[in-house]
Structure formats: structure tokens, C-alpha cells
Amino acid sequence: MDQFDWSGVPGALPTFGAGALVTLEIALVAIAAGIAWGTLLALLRLSPVKPLRAFAQAYVACFRAVPLVMVLLWFFLIVPHVLQRLFGLSPDADIRLASAMIAFSLFEAAYYSEIVRAGIQAVPVGQAKASLALGMSAWQAMRFVVLPQAWRAMVPLLLTQAIVLFQDTSLVYVIGLADFFRTATNVGDRDGTLIEMVLFAGGCYFVVCTIASGLVASLQTKVVK
């Protein structure tokens, strides 16, 4: 390790912090929006209404069949034009962050929907039937009886997918967004320490994801008990 020059890391920490904030913003928005939209998609896939069920199935199949990098590029090229027409934004407006958030949210929703659907289907059918027998509507049974039980079992899987999402945020480099990883490479290119900065960024991702994985495993043990 003596041949590596780590002297530039302390001075670059404020810059790394700004990049980490971008990464965190993308991850949190995508997790929240992805779970919300994914839950709705899961309910649509279980709907007795055929057109709604077909839409949800097609949505999930489409996004799960396309690489995330391609989705990011599509939204980077499409979203600016849509927002410019809807809100009259200047062509020079930088909306790369918004594009990344939308792309990640819609992409991750396809994966979250499968987790939610599996969780709902894991709840014994008798629970819903008993709720209906007590006078609840189908929506009330789903909201107050089925979903609470399903969420308890789904939380570890949802958090595991969130860790994967956090790792995938590094792919925003393809649209030139200065997230944590892109910031590391920029600093490395500037100071001639690209290898060191990439290794440092990789180490940070490893530490964060290892700690998060440990917390998820601990939570999963408690849920099982």
C-alpha cells in the first residue's frame, strides 16, 4: 500500500460530502417512491380487473427486462424535453438529478412490486375471508388485515433491495451527475490519484453496505422470531 498516495483524501472530504448527499437524495427518493408505486403495482397485479392486471404485468416485465443504465439514459434524454414543454423550463436547465430520481423510482418499483405481491400472497387466504365475513370490504380487508401482516414479513426484503438500489446509484455517472462515485473519479482525475480515489469510494460503499446488511440480517432474525 506504500505506493498509493492517500494524502489527497482529507482535503477532498468536503467534495465527497457533496457527492454523498446527491447519492443519498437519489436513494431515499427512489426507495420511498419505488415502494409506494410498487405497492400499487402489486395490488393491480392481484386485481380481478383484467386491464389493470395486464398493465401491471406489462410494466413489471418491461422494466425487469431492461438494464438500469439504459433506463437512466432514456430518462436523461426524454425527461428534460417533457419538463421543458410542461413547465416552460429553459433548455439550459440542469435537471439531471430529477431525471435520475424518476428513472430509479420507476425502475425499482418493478422489483418492489414483486416483493410486495409475494408478501401479500404469503398471507393465508383465510385471513381475508374472515375479514369479509366480518363485514369488511375487500379494500378494508387488504388495508387493515392483509397488508399489515405482509409488511412485517416483507421489511427485510424491502431493505435488502434498498441496499442494492444504493449500490446502483453509482450508475448515474453515465449522465454526468456528480454523485459520490463520480465525485471520486473527478477528484482522482484532477489530482492524478484516480486509483486511490476509486479504491476509497469502493471502500466507503463496502462499509456502508456491510453495516446495512448486518442490520437487515438482525431485523430478519427478530421478524422470524
Automatic annotation (TrEMBL):
Subunit structure, interactors included: The complex is composed of two ATP-binding proteins (GltL), two transmembrane proteins (GltJ and GltK) and a solute-binding protein (GltI).
Annotated ranges, domain ABC transmembrane type-1: 20-217
Transmembrane segments: 20-46, 58-83, 95-112, 157-178, 198-219
GO CC entries: ATP-binding cassette (ABC) transporter complex
Organism from which the protein derives: Trinickia fusca
Protein's name according to its UniProt entry: Glutamate/aspartate import permease protein GltK
A Pfam family matched in the record: BPD_transp_1
Membrane topology: Multi-pass membrane protein
Superkingdom of the organism of origin: Bacteria
Family: Belongs to the binding-protein-dependent transport system permease family. HisMQ subfamily.
Function recorded in the entry: Part of the ABC transporter complex GltIJKL involved in glutamate and aspartate uptake. Probably responsible for the translocation of the substrate across the membrane.
GO-annotated biological processes: amino acid transport
